[in-house]
Amino acid sequence: MLVRLPALAPPAGWEERVLARVDRVAPPAAPARRLPARWTWALAAALLLVAAVVILRRPPEERLALRQEVIPAASGRRADSAVVGDRLELRASPGGAAHAELRVYRGERELVLRCPGDRRCRAAGGAIEADLTLTSRGSYRALLLAADAPLGAPAGSLDEDARAARALGGRVDVGLAVDVE
Question: DSSP character for 36?
């Protein structure tokens, strides 16, 4: 169908008329003015000052701290490891978190202490303190969980509970293993 159309030539002078009309509608833009160098440096210094104030005014994030000590049941006993009957004293600082728990596991899966909530736990100036008598042989390990959101119930193991707390955006501190003979 297009093959049958006659070839048409544009009218003479059409390009000049189009360019003249474009010039009337949109005058050429003036070149952009640049700020003098001293204003550029002053602006950069002001932005740097604002950034420094914001960074310096942010309070440092408080660190989690977990201290544990084995107290021998028999005075004068000399041993390289803990024995049944010894006590494990714990002190945990939650680092300013709104929600914190101290949990102790035997064998990584058996929860033997959960603070707060256990009678062997006490709050002391923002910290959690606990005193656990080591009644069975095995490896004991403390876990401090801290988060701004409420922590969930224990999931069944130290690793699962640590993962769950991290999933909430929480922080975790795991104490050294205490092997009881």
Answer: P
